[in-house]
Design a protein that fits this description.
Length: 420
């Protein structure tokens, strides 16, 4: 679905929605949608994530939106869904991201069933590279899971959705519960205090699920799942030795290690080099991997839609208001704005990767307007993620990872999510 505008576009002016042609919707989140867009001058295709300000304010998610936008400015990596532009109009905030039309791993896991060891090994190598990079930037993602891994058209894996990502500090441990419970490390669900090491645990759980189409720790209630994560031994399916190499099972066991100091990727003075030297990756050419010169064992079928095609139907049936190009009010009076709108106006700043130098907000990028406490109210987003400091919990279809609210109830995430 294209959208044209008769007046000439000033590409020398600050980036805005008029710089892009709007095409099909390919994903949906808590506050808006994701759609394919094309930059009118460069003809490059991107994913446009747009966030409805009024919904954002209603769900008290301003801090998370600003936090995510700031963190994305700090990141540029081949296996991350990188931000290229950020701007806003009177109704929405916009992030223009790398386009990934291969679908998310949850979609393919449901469609294809368990993946081959070769494919999982390849993706975990790519994702390990991305996780190591994020930790070098002092960022912990906190929500690594198949839903938040997108494939490009060639089958390369990319981490997305930094909605609960934060900077970590060597001076203090984090205690807030954030992420998707099935992938949370024992230090998170047990409120023992945690740091960047939790991402390697989540990556291990993700690898296990991609290989066996189930997760190692389950529970019909959040209490039972929490107990399993903290106490149950790691058990592989009976046919695992026939389906996977010894080196593969060894790597999974070392990623899914309860002691952070003994976890693969986390061992003192060894870190990422420990991952690269592991026998599971003994034949991996890490230099070629880093520049995407290695062919993925699994390539999505680009003749088919690798996402839920119903996202566009909502607009055709007028269930939702279609996104349109609209001019901003000139010179808004910040003093007369609601505090939340003013915060967005001042802190969701414009970014243009072709002009702007990426900035780091560390150590200043602490949670915006909030303090991290262990007794927070939590909100579940449409991606199945628990976010601290919010107020509304959404419930929907079963079948996706269970997440946890602060009162211990199990919550199923909505089937719709940010995907592009």
């Amino acid at each position: 679905m294209g959208c044209c505008f008769s007046e000439p576009v000033d590409f020398n002016a600050e980036v805005n929605l008029y710089h892009f042609e709007l095409h099909r919707a390919v994903g949906k989140g808590a506050f808006g949608k994701v759609r394919v867009v094309e930059h009118k001058r460069t003809r490059r295709m991107y994913a446009l994530k747009y966030i409805d300000k009024s919904r954002c304010i209603k769900q008290k998610a301003i801090a998370n939106i600003i936090q995510e936008r700031r963190l994305l400015e700090e990141i540029d990596h081949p296996f991350v869904v990188n931000m290229r532009y950020a701007f806003q109009d009177d109704e929405n905030c916009f992030c223009v991201l790398d386009l990934m039309l291969g679908g998310d791993m949850r979609f393919h896991l449901k469609k294809e069933g368990p993946f081959s060891e070769q494919a999982v090994q390849f993706w975990i190598a790519e994702l390990s590279s991305a996780v190591h990079y994020l930790h070098q930037q002092r960022i912990v993602h906190r929500d690594i899971k198949p839903d938040n891994i997108l494939l490009d058209s060639e089958g390369h894996a990319h981490i997305t959705d930094f909605n609960v990502a934060i900077h970590f500090s060597d001076r203090r441990m984090h205690t807030s519960v954030a992420g998707s419970m099935a992938y949370m490390a024992p230090q998170v669900v047990g409120r023992q205090g945690y740091s960047w090491q939790i991402d390697w645990w989540s990556l291990g759980i993700t690898a296990y699920e991609l290989l066996f189409a189930r997760r190692p720790f389950e529970g019909r209630t959040s209490d039972k799942m929490q107990d399993a994560i903290i106490n149950d031994p790691l058990v592989f399916p009976e046919d695992a030795p026939r389906r996977c190499s010894t080196a593969c099972l060894s790597a999974l066991s070392e990623f899914i290690e309860r002691d952070p100091s003994a976890r693969l990727g986390c061992r003192p003075k060894r870190g990422f080099s420990d991952v690269k030297r592991h026998s599971w990756f003994s034949e991996m050419d890490w230099e070629k991997l880093a520049v995407k010169e290695l062919k993925s064992p699994f390539v999505p079928n680009m003749e088919e839609a690798n996402f839920d095609i119903s996202h566009e139907l909502d607009e055709f049936l007028m269930i939702e208001k279609p996104l349109t190009h609209t001019k901003r009010k000139t010179n808004p009076d910040l003093e007369k704005m609601k505090p939340e709108l003013r915060q967005l106006e001042e802190q969701f700043t414009v970014y243009d990767f072709s002009r702007s130098r990426r900035l780091t907000y560390y150590p200043h990028n602490q949670p915006v307007g909030t303090s991290e406490r262990s007794d927070q109210t939590l909100v579940q987003t449409a991606t199945g993620t628990v976010i601290p400091n919010a107020t509304i919990i959404e419930r929907s279809q079963p079948g996706s990872p269970a997440t946890m609210s602060e009162d211990g109830d199990q919550i199923s995430p909505q089937s719709t999510r940010w995907s592009h």
